[in-house]
fumarylacetoacetase (Terracoccus luteus), 424 residues
Amino acid sequence: MTDPLSTPRPATCWVLGADGHPFGVQTLAMGVFSPPGGEPRVGVRVGDHVLDAGAAADLGRQAGLVGDGPDLAAAWLTPSLNAFLALGRPAWSIARRWLTEVLTDEVHRELAEPHLHRLEDVTLHLPVEVADYVDFYAAEHHATNVGRIFRPDSPALPAAWRHLPIGYHGRAGTVVVSGTDVVRPTGQRKGPADPAPVFGPSVRLDIEAELGFVVGGATGLGERVGVDRAGEHLFGVVLLNDWSARDIQAWEYVPLGPFLGKSFATSVSAWVTPLDALVGARVPLPAQDPEPLPYLRGEVSGLDLHLEVSLGDTVVSRPESRELYWSPEQMLAHLTVNGASVRPGDLFGSGTISGPGRDTVGSLLELTWNGTEPVTLADGTTRGFLEDGDVVTMTAWAAGPGGHGRVGLGEVTGRIRPALPSMY
Ligand SMILES: O=C(O)/C=C/C(=O)CC(=O)CC(=O)O
Ligand SMILES: [Ca+2]
Ligand SMILES: [Mg+2]
């Protein structure tokens, strides 16, 4: 919704290959990396390099470039983004301006260049020590499809769905960084034709393509974050794969919701894209009818990110995040309207992003209609659900500020490893 003519092109960056790159200075994605032989610390992705942000800020402080603002060096010389997230939006804005200045003005090159590492030389880590993890259900096509498959005798969309962003609390401790193998979960399942539940490895292991929102700043118990203040607490976006064992889920979920069917692993991209990089990707939300209650009203908009989901070498779907019915601001307002506090490092998922077409759904459950219409991969094999050894990768991009270039989002990938041998 920005006017292309009024938004200047991003400034030129002195880092080789960064201009025109989806991870150029228009993006400034943040994560945690370790250089060869070094400890994990906060890094900023610049093209195919990573800037050791804390080391650069430390030098900047010594050189008098940072001023009396927040102690960015102290926050960044730590093994997660949490300390930086705790500083809140004013510090995030200062940091973004400072990083832009350092990376675009040649006079700072001498200071910063020794702290640039080639991406291929570093190890990437989980960017955030996840405090609480919530997963919403905000895509209408997904909620409708899952309703039809799981509850064929009930209305597809739950009665509350258009009145509030439905969600559940997930397991923060099993959020893992992209590249982490996922062991096929084992548990109970009972198909409609089975006389009794059986125990064993899931035979309906699935994916869910989502956006994850990383929260910063803290609120106290009993406080609320209104829609119009939510932006102060929303730092950035990760790509999120909510691995789901549909057979375990279908047997266990009534009436309290997903439990072991989803708690074994949730993968996120190593790079967190600041929402400040996505101003050019803001779009009107789908029409909300009925009008939500007053606490969910305000200046709200959606995000137009273009996702791609691959199984091995085959792109199986291209979900579009503008499909999401609720905005991230409404989700955070709802999450806190009862007085639940937020902590730096809270993470919430958007819910599986599915559009109207089969080529835009965010799960195999929908793509193969619960395994009944398998998808054919480039190598000629077919899949209803995931097999051991399968690699699932999700990527995304958005238009850059003012429509100039692209903002890249980090990828989230994971390989399925066989289940542990059964002890029972
Ligand atoms: O409708 C259900 O019973 C279950 C839905 C899901 O599994 C989806 C979920 O995790 C929320 C989402 O990703 O949209
Ligand atoms: Ca989910
Ligand atoms: Mg999960």
